[in-house]
UniProtKB/TrEMBL annotation:
Keywords linked to the UniProt accession: Acyltransferase, Lipid A biosynthesis, Lipid biosynthesis, Lipid metabolism, Repeat, Transferase
UniProt pathway: Bacterial outer membrane biogenesis; LPS lipid A biosynthesis
CDD domains named in the record: LbH_LpxD
Gene Ontology terms describing biological process: lipid A biosynthetic process
A Pfam short name: Hexapep
HAMAP family named in the record: LpxD (MF_00523)
Presence of the UniProt keyword Methyltransferase in the record: no
Active site: 241
Name of the protein this chain belongs to: UDP-3-O-acylglucosamine N-acyltransferase
Gene designation per UniProt: lpxD
Chain's role: Catalyzes the N-acylation of UDP-3-O-acylglucosamine using 3-hydroxyacyl-ACP as the acyl donor. Is involved in the biosynthesis of lipid A, a phosphorylated glycolipid that anchors the lipopolysaccharide to the outer membrane of the cell.
Lineage: Bacteria, Pseudomonadati, Bacteroidota, Flavobacteriia, Flavobacteriales
Subunit structure: Homotrimer.
Entry-linked SUPFAM superfamilies: Trimeric LpxA-like enzymes
Catalysed reactions listed for this entry: a UDP-3-O-[(3R)-3-hydroxyacyl]-alpha-D-glucosamine + a (3R)-hydroxyacyl-[ACP] = a UDP-2-N,3-O-bis[(3R)-3-hydroxyacyl]-alpha-D-glucosamine + holo-[ACP] + H(+)
Amino acid sequence: MKFTATQIAGILGGEVVGDPGAEVDRLAKIEEGTAGSITFLANPKYTSFIYSTKATITIVGENFQAEDDLSTTLIKVKDPYTAFSKLLEYYNQVKLNKSGIEQPSFISESVSYGENLYLGAFSYLGEQVKIGNNVKIFPNSYIGDNVQIGDNVTIFSGAKVYSETIIGNNCVLHGGVVIGADGFGFSPDADGVYSKVPQIGNVIIEDNVDIGAGTTIDRATLGSTIIRKGVKLDNQIQIAHNVEVGENTAIAAQTGIAGSSKIGKNCLIGGQVGIAGHIHIGNGVKIQAQSGIGRNIKDGEMIQGSPAIGYSEYNKAYVHFKNLPKIEDRLTKLEKKQSDNG
């Protein structure tokens, strides 16, 4: 789909300097711009590229003044970076703006759905599924029985949403996500033989949650595994049964959270963090990557290490750890000197 400089300026509230009819159909970096693309200049260190870029349109700051000839049409805005981000969002909306029900797909007779549904081919909607308005479910997705999905939800290809799951408004589930699989519940008998503990709870995902590709969130044994509003989950995260993740917490890739742990609001958790079961993590906690959490964490703490300790304490200890070979060498020399003097 092509857009003119005039149309883009209207979207961004900008001013066209150059050809108002210039057309573009893709986005590019300023140093990689080609004919038919639009780019932006926000960082002054890239200014030289505006005189050589082949991009048809370039978004610049409202105070930009060219010091040489330009071949690109300018759109002047207050904040080029914010404007380009807005354009990316608009582009993504246009690209994903699909509607209708593709075939083959399966929809149970008891399913209800709102306006502007997109259901991709080879998707499955189980019994008593309820879907809101403007929902997009891409091909090869599975939605189990009694699932509830709010408005403006996007579920990308290959996602699996097990029965009884509740998903709020404005959520995004990326490809390969599995929501509501059984929690890891097994009970050994006297001979060490494991028996399955039925997992009969569900998963609740509140509004404005983003879930990255390949992430899994297990259903509760009883009650609910809960992802509170505004949570952002990276790719390949494991969240076990009966976990609760507080509002606006962000968790990076490959983190694993064991059963029944509670994480507070506005936490930042780095990649490859391991959190043991039945742990309580307070609000505003920052956990550095690859940390191992085996104790409760108070509000506002910043921690690192495995097992994790205070962030500043860890950094001080690490200095000594790096110097252990030198320290050992010094001790060896002192021992030898003492022995020689003895």
